[in-house]
Amino acid sequence: MRRQHYDIAIVARDHWAKRALQWAKLSGAKRIIAIGNDAPSAVTDPIPTPSNKGHIAELFCQLAHPLGIEKKAGPLKLYVKDEEISAIRQRIKITENVPIYGLQISSRKPQQRWQAEKFIELAHQLTQREKCHILLFWSPGSNDNKQHPGDDEKAQFILEQCKDIPITPVPTQNLRELMAGMSLCDQMLTSDGGALHISVGVGVPTVAMFGNSDADFWGPWHIASEVLKAPEDNVGLLTVGDVLTRFITLRDRVIALNTKS
After folding, report:
1. What's an example GO cellular component term for this entry (predicted)?
2. Alpha-carbon distance 63 to 66, whole Å?
3. CATH number for the domain running over 82-260
4. Which is nearest to 11 in space by CA: 31, 34, 44?
5. Under a CB-based contact definition with an 8 Å cutoff, are residues 165 and 132 in contact?
6. Which residues, including other chains, have CB under 8 Å from residue 246's CB and lie 6 or more apart?
7. Taking Cα atoms as reference points, which of 121, 108, 110 lies closest to residue 158?
8. Could you tell me where the DSSP H helices lie in the chain?
9. 167-180 residue pLDDT tens
């Protein structure tokens, strides 16, 4: 790293951490920027811990202040190539001229997970309400893989119970494929996690379910959205009715906004 002759290292965390700071020091950077009132002397440009962190996008914008950059946080943007979208379109069959709704069923944290049976019921209610097509997303791999557990079994169970409705699995092997697949959707449902921010980054209106994570800090940023804060910090306690109501509310709001524009 030192061969790169870095001028500045930024510790991109809501508070400096010992391990991250060690890497910043190993880089040999002349300046180190980090958040925290108790930052050690190695941090040349400490950012005071704000009394109200706000959203992570707002907090991280403060890391640019020592560089003379005072702009407010803009929307999150991820850029998908046309060929990536074409490639995934060729792999899956999608009904034309109907809304495409994405259901992302995976979450690393147990208290962020919604049950397969509820996804099944929601998918049926959505397709009964209007003519639409469902795309199913999940973390690839078996749930007994100790290194990288996935939700292949959960996805297969949902698909088996939804053979009577238009639903298509979208297996993805990397983030670029997930970005391309999600970009095909008109609206997305997902728990908090990386997939949530990918959905937002590709510009998809998103319904986000939050369990034991801070929705105000990690919630959808600068996108049409609905946030459900689960009772007892457990997404599994959200009912299908709770989620369906917010999903429809968001869809109606997006349609109204598009009509006005």
Report:
1. cytosol
2. 7
3. 3.40.50.2000
4. 34
5. no
6. 207, 226, 228
7. 121
8. 18-26, 56-61, 82-91, 116-129, 152-161, 175-182, 194-201, 215-218, 240-260
9. 999 999 999 999 99
